[in-house]
Q: What sequence folds into this?
């Protein structure tokens, strides 16, 4: 019963994702959301607003600072989880080796 429910939920998710993909505008189309006045503002006013000579760094650290902080937090959390799991696995493996040899 759990497998059937899981398949139904995953199938529904697949339908939602496929319908979302089908609604995306074509790549390179001028009506894409990425071609809007915000990008033009960043390019024309970014150096003056932030005082930075590097426009990419200005966008990442000034305009998109909270977004960058969120991404960094997610990456750090993922790395910490993997490192802790590796540590637990390594600790269990060394305990099992000691039991067999001791």
A:
């Amino acid at each position: 019963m759990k497998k059937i429910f899981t398949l139904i939920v995953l199938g529904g998710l697949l339908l939602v994702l496929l319908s979302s993909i089908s609604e995306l505008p074509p790549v390179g189309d001028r009506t894409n959301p990425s071609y809007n006045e915000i990008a033009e503002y960043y390019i024309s006013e970014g150096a003056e607003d932030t005082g930075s000579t590097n426009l990419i760094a200005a966008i990442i650290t000034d305009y998109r600072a909270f977004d960058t902080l969120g991404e960094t937090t997610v990456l750090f959390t993922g790395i910490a989880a993997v490192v802790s799991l590796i540590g637990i696995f390594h600790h269990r493996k060394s305990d099992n080796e000691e039991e067999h040899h001791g």
